[in-house]
Structures are given as C-alpha cells and as structure tokens.
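User: Fold this; tokens only.

Assistant: Input:
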Amino acid sequence: MKLFDLFKKKPRFVEEWPIPFKEARTFEEIHVRDPFIVTEEDGYVLTGTICNKNISDGYGVPIYKSKDLKTWSGPYMIVEQSKGYEQYSHYWAPEIHKVDNQYWLLVTLMPEGGKRGTYLFTADRIDGTYTLRARVTPEDMFSLDGTYYEENGKKYIVYCYEWVEATDGHVRAVELKEDLSGIKLETDRLLFKASSNLFHPRLSPNKVTDGPFLYKDEGKLKMLWSTGGNRNYLLLNATSTGGLFDKWEQESLLFEDDGGHGMIFTTHEGEKKIVIHAPNGKNEKKGTFEHPVILPFGKPIAINDKH
C-alpha cells in the first residue's frame, strides 16, 4: 500500500463530538492536526489539534496513550475550555516538553478580544493537572505554533509571526523570563521568513510559516517547518550556520504530498522518527481526514514510502 492510499481510505466510523474515549484507536481513527509524540518510560503520549468542522472549534487539549505506537487509548483531556478557560478558543498545536522535572505544555490560543498567541502551562505529570503560567509570544502580534529550545542555559520560545499580519510569515525566537511569568520582549528576533523557502517553484501566495521544531543532527542545529505551495502543504528543513541567532539556510524539502507540521521523537528502540499530519485537512465527501503519519528520519520521503 502506498502512503497516498492511506490518505484516501474511507473513515471506518463517524465520531461523536466531542470525541468519546476509546481504547485501541489506530492513527487513521485519530483525526488531529499538528501531532506531537512524547516518549515516556512506559510508552508514548500523543497530543495534537482537535477540530470538528473547522480549525477554530476545538474544545481543549487531548492526549492519547500507547505502548507500541500502533494502537492508542484516548482522548484524555488535559486542558478543557469548559473548565476554567472559557475566554480562549482554538487550542492549536499543543506540544509537551519535559523541562526541569516539570511538563511544559505549549498551546496556541485565541484570547477573547485579543490576538492569537502561544501560552505556557505546567504540570507535575504528563497526564496531570496543567496550570496556565503565561502567554509566551508578544501580545500585539498574531502568532502561533510556539516550540521550546534551550541554548547556553537560556530558555527560548521559537514561534511563527503569522502571515495574516506579517504578509511574509516569520519564524522568530524570544527568551523566557526565569520565573516563567512571560517573555523578555527585548530579545525577540527574526530567524527567517517564509519567502526564504527555495525548494518549491510555486509558493502559496499566502506566505505561511508553520510548525517550527528544533533539533540537533551531526552537531548542527536544524529546524523542521512547514509552509504551503502548489496547493499542497510542505515539510521543509533548515540548518543554522551556528546557533539559534546565526544565519539559517534552507536545506531541503522533506515532504511535499500535502502533509507537514512535523516533529522528531525517539522510539524505545532508539530510532528517530518524524511524525506529521496528512492530508492537510478533512473532506467528508471524499472520506479523507487529517491524521498522524510516522515517516523515516534522515532523508527526503518519497510518495511510495510506507512507515
């Protein structure tokens, strides 16, 4: 079976909304965008953006649990709009990072009367009670998809300044305050723009930056990020000439068959994998729904790769 065929398969069921808890779901049954996988000692935890008819009607942050990356139980809701966060909507692109013996949840929210941005929650357990600490992108900018990176003992949020306001979307970085009460605005800097993508001849007129994820490979600092081109969603790879604030060079186009917002995790067997969502949307008439797809790490992915 080709990877493309996985995207075309008809759904096996019509879900209730909100999504009910279920044991032993497959990836094809988990309709999330922006998947993020955390490897724990006793298994794996998946989170992502849930939405029903459109990308703004999610109702919180879900997690799913698995022992083998094949079947998943869930969703377990770790943040819910109806439980203290009624002033926020969207709940996009959640990521969970373990930092200083705490679990950090980064999630993009739309505050009532304000501009969309990424917020930081913390908890003592990955499936525990998360407490809102601060907004960690500038309040006067439409921004999304904040991710965590640490360099030289300093903690940073790398995020996207949205094309809806910037026209040519940015990837930017800003340092967190030591007490996690917010960000040091004077440190906010541009890393690169969407137009720096040189790997697709027909970049979408909407110059989108989405889903940055930083990692080290062979001693070099690299970044996965996504954009649109030729009616498809793309996964790209950039490499820094040094550290976070040095020059970023666009290195390769990793996936161009309408999938992206990738991150890298390591399996219990020590293998690195990329997880993306694909396709980049849902079409109930065609029976296609976005869902997590695991891809190999370390090479461009061909259309007929199956993983």
